What we know:
By secondary structure, the chain is an alpha/beta fold. About 25% of the residues lie in helices and about 20% in strands. It has 13 helices and 17 strands.
Amino acid sequence: MDIAxxxxxxxxxxxxxxxxxxxxxxxxxxxxxxxxRKAQFRWHEGLLLPGTTLxxxxxxxxxxxxxxxxxxxxxxxxxxxxxxxxxYYYDHFQVPRREYDHYCRWAAGQLxxxxxxxxxxxxxxxxxxxxxxxxxxxxxxxxxRYSSRDLAIGLGTRPWLPAWAQTRTQAPLxxxxxxxxxxxxxxxCRRVVVVGSGQSAAECVLALFSALTPEQVEAGASxxxxxxxxxxxxxxxxxxxxxxxxxxxxxxxxxxxRDKRREIVAQQGLLYKGISFSTIGAIYDLIxxxxxxxxxxxxxxxSSCDVETVxxxxxxxxxxxxxxxQLEQRATLEADAIVAATGYAHAWPxxxxxxxxxxxxxxxxxxxxxxxxxxxxRCDGGSxxxxxxxxxxxxxxVGSPDLGLGPVRNAVIVNQLLGRAQYRVPQxxxxxxxxxxxx
Length: 439
């Protein structure tokens, strides 16, 4: 088996590792390969719904916030597709989600180091050569091996389902990540329940509610929107509130004890889990319009309701049991389909778990320890670096999965690979001072 020798191997090609590959394209003397099991780049494929946008400004592309003149910037993408003037008059800071996906696929197509349809099956550290050995297999069954000085782990997150949503049912019970693929099927269902109160849940509700006709409502069709939260609240989008997604806050966050970090992020849900003002407004306006004259609009919103069980009905459909946390009472709903917009979680592969304790140091919770420079702490004294992209938020704060911080993180990584400050890292990125005032 031939072995490819690399300076850095990237595992997973989401926006963050794709951005790293883009920055590295300016430095061809650094050999790299990025491996992704999917056949092509797709970004939240099941939620590329018409009318949906990024929740960050267009400047949060793959490269601009680290290298504004990079040829793989979003503005150059528009220029190359003869859309720059159209975007100029589009007059929106947030760009369509489907166009961001197309932009990333355009960028990936210009990076020969990105290998799609290739799944990593094993990673180990070879002490003799002081290099990582990565084994992979392509969709055609071809096995490959790479030897790399450093690693960049960019695996991202996977849809997470609570216990009640893992029940095998005859009627559709799906995660919101599948919504776009099964939207037509859901629109044919008479009664649909959407669970969750974040942006994904709101977008599913808006899409289904927009397609629901008054005639269907009169015939008994309905949508129920349920959340265990106390209400359907907006995401933080004020100018000062957004400064939690800056390098300045990330740097401050790393001065805190690890247990204190976990405590803080547990209280910061509405900074990133809420709904955009525009989506809330669109849903509210539609309810208002469809309730004129006392009509039943067809959408019912229930808060403080924690789903406990879901079971098949003897005839057809599903029965959901939920508990109102404030009234301390239970109720049931019958539905033909349920959409669980219950978020995402890290699911580290087996090869990564095997590195813990043998190569990578872990904390009391069994998690790897990622430093301010985005390298995972080693416990074996080896020299190779393991950079972790989008580590869980208790490592770097709520900004860890934010697209705007990706280029800055990649700039820090590339500077380490080059051994020099090639990219300028912001020294002052917020007006707030998160620590004590300087004396």
